[in-house]
Design a protein that fits this description.
The protein is an alpha+beta fold and about 1000 residues long. Helix content is about 70%, strand content about 10%. Strands 2-1-4-5-8-9 form a six-stranded antiparallel sheet.
Length: about 1000
C-alpha cells in the first residue's frame, strides 16, 4: 500500500482542510514528519488508520472524538485517502460519527459514521474531485467498506499497526508479545488455513473412530469396574477364588475388629497428652512474641523522655513564636506604608500630568462647536429622503416574498429527492432482510435437527443411567438374599448336627458288647457316644431350618435371575447409546441458540411488500420533473425582485450622498449632535476635575510619609523583643543539653506522652502474664514424650477401614461367584470386537496426533508452519539488527528445555556475541530495544510481502523512538532504513531529534498555532 494523497478536514488538531501530498516523499524513499509535541504528527497516522479501517491508530481513542475543537460548526470532519495497491489506485473517504447544526431550529443533529470506496485507476491525481471520483465499489456502508479494504489489503487494523503503521507507544509491542499473542498476529498475516483444515479433518475422523472404540471399551470397563476387576483375566481368576476368599475374610474380619478397638484406645490417650504439648507451644510462642517487643518498648521510653523535656520548654517557645509573629506583622505594615507612600507619589505625578494634558486640549473646544453646527444642517437633507426610503422598503418586501416562494419550491423538490433516496434505501434494506430471513430459517431448521439428535442422545444416556441404578438395586437385593441363604445354611447345618448327635446318643444306649451295630453291623464298639439324649423338639427345628433354607435358596435364585435381566437391559442400552453420535453442544445450548435464531427472525419484523415500495419509488420519480420546473420559475421571480430592490436602494443612496453613511437616520444624526454637545461639556468638566485631583494627590503624599515613619518605629521595637525571646529560649535549650533540631524532634511527640505511658505499662503487665502461662504449661509436659497423634489417628482409621472392608468382602464373596462367569463370557466377546476396531484405527490416530502437536517438536501443524515463517522473519530481521548493533546481537527463537532439547515455540531471545549466550529481549536497553523492534518490523514486512502475493507493503511509517539512540547507533539505524528504501520501499519517520531532521530534510513540517495546526512540505 502506497499513500498518494491524504486530505484532512476538521480532524484532530487541524481546523480546516489540510492536504498531504506524498508523491515527492515517496519518490525520495526516505522522508520525515516533523513538528513540536502535540502539533499533530501522530494524527496523520490516525487519519490513515481511520480512513482504511474506521478506527484511529490508538486503542484508547474513540472514533467519535476525532473532530477538531478548532473547526467551524458547519465544517464536517472528514478524511480522504488516495492510495495505490499494486497497479490499482483507490480513493477511500470516511466521516466519523459527529454532531452538526440542524437545517432548522438552531439545534444540533447527529451525523452517522459513513464511508465510501472508489476505484480511481487511470485518473490523474489532480483531476480526482468530488465530481470525478472514479468507479464506486462500496458506498455508505461502513462495515462493507472495511471488509472490502481488509480483503484487498490482506490484513486488518491490528496487523496494519504491527507491520505498516507503528504509532507512538506501540513500537515494541510485537517484540514483547508472548507466544499466544504473536501466534494470533502471524496467523492473520500468513495464510496457513490449509494446515488448520487438514489437522481438523484428521482430528475429526480420528475422534469419531476413537470415540466409538472408547465407548465400547468404556462399556466393558464399566461392567468390569462394577464387579471390582481391572481385566478379563482378573475377572476369571476372581470367580475361582471367591469361595476361598470368603473363609480368609471371615478370619481377617475378626482380627481386624480386635485391632480397631485397640487402636481407638491408644488414640484417645494420645489426644490428652497432645493437648498439654499444644498449650506449652502456644505459651512459649506468646512469651517469645512479647519479649521480641522489648526493643520497641525501650525506644518508646526514650521517645517519652524527650517528649517530657520538650513539653517543659513549650512556654518559652510560645513566647518566641509570638515575638516572631509580631515582627512579621510589623514588617508587613511597614511594607504596606512604603507602598502607600510610593503610590501617593505616583498618583501626584499622574494628576499633574493629567492637568497639563487637559490644559493642552482647551483649544479643541471651538473646533468641536463648529462640527456640531455642520451636523445640524444634515437634518434638512434627511427630511427629503423619506419618499425614496419608502420605495426601497416596498421593493425589499417584494424580494422577501419571492425568496420565500423560491425556498418553498426548493424545499418541496428536496423533500421529493429525500423521499426518493429513503424509498430506495428501504427497498435495499427490505432485500437484505429477505436474504437474512432465508438464511436464519435455514439455520433454524438445521438447529432443530441437531436438537432432536441431542434429545435422543440425552434420553439414551438417561436410560443407561437408570439401568445402572436398577442393576445396583438388584445387586444389593441379590447380595442380601445370598447373605440370608448363608445364614439359613448355617442354621440348617447346626440343626442337622444337633439332630444327628441326639440320634447317635440314643443308639449308643442300646449297643451291647458282641452284638451287631444296627447301623454299621460291627460287633465291636470301642467309643460309643455318651451323654443324655435330649432330642425333644430337634426334629421340628431341623424341619423348620430345612424349610427356611429352601425359601432362602429360592429367593437367592430369583434375585439372581432379576440381576441378570437388569444387567442384560443395561448392556442393551449401553450398546444403543454407543451407536449414537455424541452431540457437540448440550440440549440447553442448542435450545438457547435456536431461541436466539427465532428471536433474530422475529427481530426482522414482518415481511415488507417490495412491489409496493417499488411502486412508491416510481411515483416519486414521476413528480420530480414538475418540482424541478417549479424551482426554476421561483428562481427567476426571485432574481427579478432582487434587481428591483437594488435600483430603489441606489436612488435612495443618490439623495443621501452628502450625508455620511453612519448619519443617514434621524436617530443616528440626533445622537451625533447630542454626543458632540456632551463631549464639549465633558471636556470642561474634565479640566475642573484635573485641577481638583492634583490638589488631593499632594495632600495624600504628605500623609503617606508620616505613616511610613510610624510603621518603621514599630518594626524596630518588635525586632528587639524577638531577639530577647530567642536568647531566653536558647539558654533553656542549652540548660537541657538540647540542640534546636533535637527539640523540634521531641516536640513532635508531646501529643503522644499519655499514649506512650499507657503502652509501656500495658507491655509490663502482658509480659508478666505470658511468663506465668509459659511456666504452668512447661510443668504440665515435664517428663513426657509427645505422642504421634496423626500416626495413631491414621492407624485407627486404617484399622476401622480394614475391619469394615473385611466384613463387606466376606458378605459379598458368595454372591459374586455366580455372576462372574457369565460376565466374563460376555466381556470376552465384546473385547474381541474392540481389538479388531483398534487395529484399524491405529494408523489414523498416529497421523492425527502428530498433526495436533503430539510429536517431537510438540507443535501443531498450523503452528509448525507459522514457526517456519517466523524463522524467515527472524532471518530477515537479523540482516538489519546485526549491522545496527555492530554485529553484537541477533534474534533467535527460544529453546524450551522443559520440553526436551530442540523444542521451540514462538518466544524470542537475543543472542549476545560478547557473552556467547542468549538472554531475554526485555534485558535490552531502550536504544537496543528500538533497533530490535525496528529490525523485526522490517523483517516481518519483508516476509509478509514475499509469501503473500495479495499483501503489498510498499510504505512503512515509524513513529518516534530515535531519541533513545546515541549518534553512532542513530547513523546505523538511518543507514538500515536507507537500505530498505533501496529495496523499493518507502519509509516515513516521525521524530523530534535534530540529527534525524538534518539527515533527512525531505518530508513534512507541522506548525502549531492557537487556531489549529498546519502542514507544509519540506524540500531537500
Amino acid at each position: 500500500m502506497r499513500p498518494i494523497r491524504l486530505t484532512l478536514r476538521a480532524f484532530g488538531p487541524y481546523a480546516g482542510e489540510q492536504v498531504v501530498d506524498f508523491r515527492d516523499a515517496l519518490g525520495a524513499g526516505l522522508f520525515g514528519i516533523y513538528g513540536p509535541t502535540g502539533s499533530g504528527k501522530s494524527s496523520i497516522f490516525s487519519a490513515i488508520s481511520f480512513a482504511l479501517f474506521g478506527e484511529p491508530a490508538r486503542d484508547d481513542q474513540d472514533a467519535s472524538t476525532l473532530r477538531s475543537d478548532h473547526a467551524d460548526p458547519n465544517c464536517l470532519t472528514e478524511v480522504e485517502l488516495i492510495f495505490e495497491l499494486g497497479a490499482t489506485k483507490y480513493l477511500v473517504r470516511r466521516r466519523p460519527e459527529q454532531m452538526r447544526p440542524a437545517q432548522r431550529g438552531g439545534k444540533e443533529t447527529r451525523e452517522a459514521h459513513c464511508a465510501w470506496l472508489f476505484d480511481v485507476t487511470g485518473i490523474p491525481l489532480d483531476e480526482i474531485t468530488s465530481e470525478n471520483q472514479g468507479i464506486p465499489i462500496v458506498e455508505k456502508k461502513v462495515s462493507e467498506v472495511r471488509e472490502e479494504l481488509e480483503r484487498r489489503l490482506g490484513y486488518g487494523k491490528e496487523q496494519f499497526r504491527q507491520i505498516v503503521l507503528l504509532p507512538q507507544g506501540r513500537f515494541e509491542k510485537f517484540l514483547a508479545a508472548n507466544t499466544n499473542d504473536r501466534l494470533a498476529i502471524l496467523r492473520d498475516l500468513f495464510d496457513v488455513s490449509l494446515y488448520k483444515r487438514l489437522t481438523q479433518k484428521m482430528k475429526d475422523e480420528a475422534k469419531a473412530a476413537e470415540e466409538k472404540i472408547r465407548a465400547d471399551r468404556r462399556a466393558c470397563e464399566s461392567r468390569l469396574e462394577q464387579e471390582g476387576f481391572a481385566t478379563l483375566e482378573d475377572l476369571s481368576a476372581g470367580a475361582q477364588q471367591a469361595q476361598e476368599e470368603q473363609k480368609i475374610e471371615a478370619a481377617a474380619a475378626e482380627a481386624a475388629k480386635s485391632n480397631a478397638a485397640l487402636a481407638e484406645q491408644k488414640l484417645a490417650a494420645a489426644h490428652e497428652v497432645e493437648k498439654a504439648f499444644a498449650e506449652n507451644e502456644a505459651a512459649a510462642q506468646a512469651l517469645a512474641s512479647m519479649e521480641a517487643k522489648s526493643k520497641e518498648i525501650e525506644k518508646d521510653k526514650t521517645v517519652l523522655g524527650g517528649a517530657l523535656v520538650a513539653r517543659s520548654l513549650s512556654d518559652v517557645d510560645a513566647v518566641m513564636q509570638r515575638a516572631r509573629t509580631d515582627l512579621s506583622a510589623a514588617s508587613a505594615t511597614c511594607t504596606k506604608a512604603q507602598a502607600a507612600r510610593t503610590a501617593a507619589e505616583d498618583a501626584l505625578g499622574k494628576a499633574a500630568a493629567a492637568l497639563a494634558a487637559e490644559q493642552a486640549k482647551r483649544g479643541e473646544s471651538e473646533t468641536m462647536r463648529e462640527q456640531g453646527a455642520a451636523l445640524k444642517r444634515h437634518r434638512e437633507t434627511l427630511s427629503h429622503a423619506d419618499k425614496k426610503k419608502t420605495a426601497k422598503e416596498e421593493a425589499a418586501a417584494i424580494e422577501r416574498d419571492a425568496a420565500a416562494a423560491f425556498e418553498i419550491a426548493q424545499n418541496n423538490h428536496s423533500a421529493l429527492v429525500r423521499e426518493q433516496a429513503d424509498t430506495a434505501a428501504r427497498i435495499k434494506t427490505a432485500e437484505t432482510v429477505a436474504g437474512q430471513r432465508a438464511t436464519l430459517s435455514a439455520a433454524a431448521q438445521e438447529l432443530k435437527s441437531k436438537l432432536d439428535a441431542a434429545l435422543n442422545y440425552d434420553r439414551a444416556l438417561k436410560a443407561v443411567n437408570d439401568a445402572r441404578g436398577h442393576v445396583a438395586d438388584a445387586r444389593e437385593d441379590h447380595e442380601k438374599n445370598c447373605r440370608a441363604q448363608e445364614a439359613a445354611q448355617r442354621n440348617f447345618d447346626e440343626a442337622e448336627a444337633a439332630l444327628a448327635g441326639a440320634q447317635a446318643q440314643h443308639l449308643a444306649e442300646k449297643l451291647r458288647p458282641g452284638e451287631a451295630c444296627p447301623v454299621c453291623g460291627s460287633h465291636e464298639h470301642p467309643a460309643p457316644a455318651h451323654g443324655q439324649a435330649e432330642s425333644a423338639g430337634r426334629d421340628d427345628a431341623f424341619t423348620a431350618a430345612r424349610k427356611a433354607l429352601d425359601g432362602a435358596r429360592n429367593a437367592s435364585a430369583a434375585s439372581g435371575q432379576t440381576l441378570a435381566a437388569k444387567e442384560a437391559t443395561l448392556s442393551e442400552r449401553q450398546s444403543h447409546l454407543a451407536a449414537l453420535v455424541k452431540p457437540e453442544n448440550t440440549v440447553a445450548e442448542l435450545q438457547e441458540h435456536s431461541a436466539k435464531v427465532h428471536n433474530d427472525i422475529e427481530t426482522l419484523g414482518p415481511a415488507i411488500d417490495l412491489e409496493a415500495l417499488r411502486g412508491a419509488l416510481e411515483r416519486v420519480e414521476g413528480r420530480l420533473p414538475e418540482a424541478g420546473a417549479a424551482v426554476e420559475s421561483a428562481r427567476t421571480s426571485r432574481d427579478q425582485a432582487i434587481t428591483g430592490h437594488a435600483l430603489a436602494a441606489q436612488a435612495l443612496e443618490d439623495v443621501l450622498a452628502s450625508v455620511p453613511e453612519n448619519l443617514r437616520t434621524t436617530d443616528a444624526l440626533e445622537a451625533a449632535i447630542t454626543a458632540a454637545d456632551e463631549e464639549i461639556r465633558k471636556r470642561d468638566l474634565a479640566f475642573e476635575q484635573a485641577v481638583k485631583s492634583e490638589r488631593d494627590a499632594s495632600e495624600m503624599q504628605i500623609a503617606a510619609l508620616k505613616d511610613e515613619q510610624s510603621a518603621a518605629n514599630a518594626r524596630d521595637a518588635a525586632l528587639a523583643k524577638l531577639q530577647e525571646a530567642e536568647e531566653s529560649f536558647g539558654g533553656r535549650l542549652a540548660a537541657n543539653g538540647l540542640t534546636q533540631e533535637q527539640y523540634e524532634a521531641h516536640k513532635a511527640n508531646i501529643d503522644r506522652i499519655e499514649e506512650l505511658q499507657a503502652s509501656i505499662e500495658r507491655f509490663g503487665q502482658d509480659l508478666h502474664a505470658a511468663r506465668d502461662r509459659a511456666a504452668r504449661a512447661g510443668t504440665n509436659v515435664e517428663g513426657k514424650d509427645r505422642p504421634d497423634v496423626a500416626g495413631l489417628s491414621a492407624a485407627a482409621e486404617e484399622a476401622t477401614q480394614v475391619r469394615d472392608g473385611a466384613f463387606r468382602r466376606e458378605a459379598s464373596a458368595v454372591a459374586r461367584a455366580e455372576s462372574l462367569v457369565k460376565l466374563a463370557e460376555s466381556i470376552a466377546g465384546a473385547l474381541s470386537g474392540i481389538k479388531k476396531a483398534e487395529d484399524a484405527y491405529a494408523p489414523l490416530a498416529a497421523v492425527a496426533h502428530a498433526f495436533s502437536g503430539k510429536n517431537n517438536a510438540n507443535m501443531e501443524l498450523e503452528a509448525f508452519a507459522i514457526a517456519a515463517m517466523f524463522d524467515l522473519v527472524l532471518a530477515s530481521a537479523n540482516a538489519r539488527f546485526k549491522p545496527m548493533s555492530g554485529g553484537r546481537y541477533s534474534l533467535e527463537r527460544e529453546r524450551d528445555v522443559s520440553k526436551g532439547a530442540g523444542k521451540k515455540g514462538l518466544d524470542m531471545v537475543v543472542h549476545d556475541v560478547h557473552t556467547g549466550r542468549t538472554r531475554a529481549t526485555a534485558t535490552l536497553s531502550g536504544g537496543e530495544t528500538f533497533m530490535a523492534a525496528l529490525a523485526l518490523a522490517l523483517g516481518l514486512s519483508d516476509v509478509v510481502e514475499s509469501v503473500n502475493g495479495g499483501v503489498h507493503l510498499d510504505t512503512i511509517f515509524i513513529d518516534e523512538g530515535f531519541g533513545t539512540l546515541d549518534t553512532e547507533t542513530l547513523d546505523q539505524a538511518l543507514q538500515t532504513l536507507q537500505d530498505v528504501v533501496g529495496e523499493s520501499r518507502a519509509v516515513g519517520l516521525i521524530s523530534h531529534v535534530d540529527l534525524v531532521q538534518q539527515a533527512i530534510p525531505l518530508g513534512f513540517q507541522i506548525s502549531k498555532t492557537t487556531g489549529g495546526s498546519h502542514i507544509s512540505q519540506r524540500l531537500s
